[in-house]
Give the backbone structure.
Amino acid sequence: MNYKPFLTRDFKSIKLDEQAPKKWNTLHWLVVVAAITAVSTLVVFASKDASAKRSESLTTMPVTTSEAPESKSVLTQITLPLSIPGSISGNNPATKTAGTTQTAQVKPEGAQSHPVQPTLKNQTAAKENTSPLYVWLDEKVRRGDSLAHLFKRNKLSPQDLHKIMQLGKTTRALKYIQPGQTFKFRLDEQQQLVEMVYQQNRFQSLRIERQDDKFVASTLSRVAQKRQQHISGTIQSSLFVDAKNAGMNAALIMDLVSIFGWDIDFALDLRKGDTFSLLYEEHFLDGLKIKDGDILAAQFTNQGRTYRAIRYTDPKGNSNYYTPEGLSMRKAFLRTPVDFRRISSRFGKRKHPVLNRMRLHKGVDYAASRGTPVKAAGDGKIIFRGRKGGYGKAIIIRHGGRYSTLYAHLNNYRRGLYTGKFVKQGQIIGYVGSTGRATGPHLHYEFRINGVHRNPLTVKLPNAAPINKKFKADFEQHSLKLLAQLDAFNFKIAANAYTQAF
Ligand SMILES: [Zn+2]
């Protein structure tokens, strides 16, 4: 049940405006407040999932921060003891009776035009009336804040702070509060802390309640709902343009590229008419999409050859993409060791742009702007780092016994990388430049097997480890289901295209 609008409306109805004339007496107003309290309390209690949604009601509680921190002691707002089951709320019989008798006459809308001065006087009045009004204070964590600062700013007891910090593991997060996170403090009429809510992010909050002389902590966490979504498209101009037209955002496109980037060189291999389709997750909170999740299964047909990938998370929690046969989509080497814009020169015979004569080009040139990071193509050990004739500043990495890769014309090396150091696949080792014999900034990349130059664009790269045998059966079950879904979707798309064509 969505009672958010209701709560919001209720709150507005008692919005306090200091400029407006004081027409009603304080007591009268307390009755109105009590009436609204009772109504909102009843509504929330009526909902079966009241306790599950508790954090929501807390987070959406429209208590605004007062601008000046100094004015905190003067209570600028009276907030309803909203629907917090189990807490010592203003839910006593006196309030309730007042509420039920008054609801009929008093429209919440009317309240807006007759505001009360929210001063300590009201608090006193509340006390006399024996209907306790609680006050929520809102705090946003600022740079350099600690919980002690927040307590001080809100004139809360350091003893209480001490007790809360002593609660142990559950309240450890309070030591690492971050700017932008929010706190809500609920005080009783003696200005004593009754409850505190620490909203860590939209999913997680920590609630601390006073119970007699102690504090009790509880964490509230919410989980995004995941829904599966399909997208498919055909390459007309470029992957980015066509995928975007199909409804994918940049992050999702990059995910797709990183899954198939081991097999398909998206800068060079893509052709008009290539197709892609994917099954992915979308995350929702309160019915609103908050982000795209993981790609669960995807298919890419490039120049007539179809590649399929399935995401699998093993029981240990490791996620990877595999072929339907259970081979890793990942290779032991990156196909492209630089975030390139375009490839300026391919492997093979060509006229050398500087020497102006034909010679075998033993690598691939990736034109990129100066300073573009260059990554290690695979795990390995740096066996050379320095100037090397026409290569300019270069790095050579040896990967196991058979393979080695060379990166030339670097502008500079990554700091701290020397001959003998081990690097991981994808680790930045240097930056694109034009040192040595180069017409402009580019990366010259060579791939050798047993010392022999091979075309890095076409050489068959060894795969990373396949799926663990222990999980093979589980993987197959999982992958069959996802591939069937993907097939059903592709079939539907194809059928639609067929009908539309006639
Ligand atoms: Zn070159």
